């Protein structure tokens, strides 16, 4: 794939072609060195996770030592002048497999992240019931985008593997394909396999690459398809015959439809990227009919899907950006509404500093890429000039998004945008990296050493900015952390409810109990929203009547159970959320509830306690008794 678009100079070093014997020696040297580095890196990663789980110091140091001991040599072999196209391909595949290792070691046996519970449960339900487009109790729109879940469920049926192990296979393949896809896309712009490899390495430095886009989530699959759709689109734009253009366009459309049925944001970003390429082509007077046609088809695919299949998607996405802009305006005006980065974080100082330095490195790379583009604008091939200008514009979107991370509502959206905007930075900066390396004919130059050091710095910084330590490292149970919500007590309560009362019951719960009851428990929890403020049940003071509108909603929508985690009166959630974003609950460093607020349900005549544990209680709704007076003693 990469070799197909490589220039005749690939496989040369210093202007002379490397012979078969030398190529074999280079391949053997690369295999031996990277195998040793990979084994050492894996041991270091395991050590880091063990130290974190046991509460010992040094987990961060061991982790990054393990990552860099393999990643930096792999990057060097990938962009080395004497490396053959086959060696580069093998290095990139090995690099993709190794960079999947941190997430694989983090949770090899089952879901761990918030969205993983939802997607795992969705695939599991499809496997059991054989029905697509089912409502999901944890993330309400993912049932409308069944591409990932149908793929996992189908493979699980064919192979007999569990849903989780099938998902791991799909995720590993997707991770490899996104890495190779970036290289193939870069090769459509510049016929130099070194630039292609450099683009893949730079893209791997984005904050989502190690953890977010390796989790069981629809973006993890869709973003790899996006990269290959763009590569096919570029082949269609470059095609010299109508037949070739039609064939590559048809493949692009097929991948576009697959993305649309898999993930809403990725489909929207694909449309935007195609539009940037079309606009840039039109501006530079490059034939743009194919680009505009593919843009229109992509936009129509997204619009038709959202209108006919998932009209709720717009309402689901709007609050994130709208509230973020409101909070950003509040910061600019009154100074309120912001968030403090790394507040109470256990990340070491050097990791936090790297997180602040990473955007600066990206800015320098983007600026340098823009200068190089300007210098070569008269000699560059027209399609390359137009497409690389579009990638510069795409990469520029990364920087305003970094400002949104200063707002509570915008932080999540900012992080999710970086995986897409960083594609532009990677493709634009790759020629600059090779140009800097080519300034020296020595095997290891000052430029090369600085670039490797910069890669390490940006990888550390972006990962630190993208994921909290509790998401990246194991450890003891922590209240209010999605990755550590699966405690034995909550699992036992969810299992008890499923075994004694069946699956599919509607219940009200906090965010963290809802994850377990909605996945392992196979129930349908809700944590509340602006239109259905179920959290008012918990907020209400003892002796105060419940809002009549809420009680009517609970009755009409046939809710059966209420789950109460009494730790909400004892501890502050690590991620500062009890139920959902923008909840009307104070987050001032103290528990948001009193013990009385969470034990008042024992006296409610329309609630019957059916389960009681050290922290978890389950009540059954009995709305026929809602008008009776409150009992004076707990049941």
From TrEMBL:
The chain crosses the membrane at residues 26-49, 61-79, 163-186, 218-237, 244-261, 267-284, 291-309, 353-374, 386-406, 418-437, 449-467. Keywords: Membrane, Transmembrane, Transmembrane helix. Signal peptide: none annotated. Residues 1-22 are annotated as: Disordered. This is 4-amino-4-deoxy-L-arabinose transferase. It comes from Actinoplanes derwentensis.
